[in-house]
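Quick one before lunch.
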Amino acid sequence: MDADYIVVGAGSAGCTVAARLSEDQGSRVLLLEAGPKDTNPMIHIPAGGRSLLRHPVINWNYGTAPEEGSGGRSIYWPRGKVLGGSSSINGMVYVRGNAADFDGWAQMGCRGWSYADVLPHFIKSETYHGEGDDAYRGGGGPLQVQPYRSILPLTHKFVEAAQQAGFPLNADYNGAHQDGVCYAQMTHKGRMRGSTAATYLAAAKGRTNLSVETGAVATKLLFGGKKCTGVAFRQNGQDKVLHAAREVILCGGSVNSPHLLQLSGVGPAAHLQSLGISVVHESPGVGQNLSDHYITRIQHRVKGAVSMNQLARFPRYVPHVFRWLLMGDGALTFSAITAMVFTRSREGLEVPDLQFLFSPGSYTQTSGVLEREPGMSVNVCPARPDSRGSIMVENPDPLAPPIIRPNYLSAESDLQVMLSGVKQTRRIMAADAMADVSTGETQPVDPIETVAEMRRVAQAIGTTIYHPVGTCKMGEDPMAVTDSRLRVHGVQGLRVVDASIMPTLTTGNTNAPSIMIGEKGAAMVREDAAA
Ligand SMILES: Cc1cc2nc3c(=O)[nH]c(=O)nc-3n(C[C@H](O)[C@H](O)[C@H](O)COP(=O)(O)OP(=O)(O)OC[C@H]3O[C@@H](n4cnc5c(N)ncnc54)[C@H](O)[C@@H]3O)c2cc1C
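Model of the flavin-adenine dinucleotide complex:
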């Protein structure tokens, strides 16, 4: 079972990497995935995603350590454990980020990652089916990006209200600029979810030089001196070993990539030694620089309009099942988020630092499931937070989860941005267009006028929107884990290619940038092999 390239993790980035590397007929590529094949139908029906949030098999079901920022609560962190990884369970919203995010990476010393450098990889990755400028959008890539096939009137009301509140309509927030209110673009494939397994990997299926092993949990990276030579993994209760003739490419995501590096002896030396893990290479930044999108949700009770709350219940969803089967639209094509606003927390900022994510549904505070009563909600999200946390191995057993400490709201600046976002969202929800569909705000119940009040509310009801990044950041400073070609500093034969290499969060959801990283990472592997 040896290969030229072993790709660990078949998620957003990993499927992209394996599909692109296996285009070279002369390269033997082996893709290892801890979870099963993506045969569960709920993965593929867009509205089925809600049922996967706490799925016992195809989800890693992580939780954060209770911390001050989350009021002593553990915040639930789903991550996909299945072919397609988190792209098989995510909300499918397609957001590339702001050009300034990538220019910022280049400014931090990540050579080759400016917006001009990454744009061709975004374009290569997609086939776009919506309105936009061809200079920014792709027409021949595996990933299908399209507008919603059905839109509830509540979403139109929100978009209208935002315009009344002064936010201009933006037809393509993945185009020339991000500002304004917009309808969400989705990684759908026709009526189905377009995960990277259903798109990239499906297109590569049948190539004899690509093997995919599922139910295969990598437990350790193997080293000969400082060279990574292969991977130890557990499959069907058996321990096995694979050797890589060229490289091991780690695509385990922002939680598992740093965890596997630490388990394998690449990380903060003193901590690893305290757990009895032999150090291969001291790299103090492995697991540090964790950054995530922490939100406060504003909810309204709905009158005189249909929300997802009603449509998700029997018997209201029954006609939608037929509609989905016959016409490929209706409520089964819905995910949670249908419209968004990108804006600034204060005057003078060059680019947006806030994202509002609108859902024509309302959710219970603690478990995030749809409420019984009809409602709508807006997630207020500081898009480029300053708070940083960590992910650390605490048990040398490779199957034990690491400790996740996001340190939410430890930077006061994040609260100031969030406070501005709450005030702006309330302005939108008070606009005329909302008057005939809202009976008023139901959450948060406490006043939010000051940073102290914002802190109390965010501690009590804030939560993640599942975008951890940064735990194996690329760069050249002493805390950087990889260089700009995503090679792990201090060792040979090993790269990290996934969301964990982002030095900072992008302004928006993180699936599209993770796939772009997969595209660019694969291109760099191929260039280096040819050099
Ligand atoms: C519930 C949810 C909703 C989200 N909604 C959106 C959204 O609407 N839009 C958006 O842009 N982003 C969204 N995201 C975020 C986005 O999906 C992620 O940022 C992105 O998928 C990360 O890609 P990745 O390749 O880094 O990791 P992943 O896609 O998580 O892939 C990692 C893969 O590695 C595998 N793996 C890990 N460890 C091992 C091991 N030891 N051995 C073998 N395999 C291993 C995992 O099982 C997984 O398949 C959401 C995420 C979640 C969880």
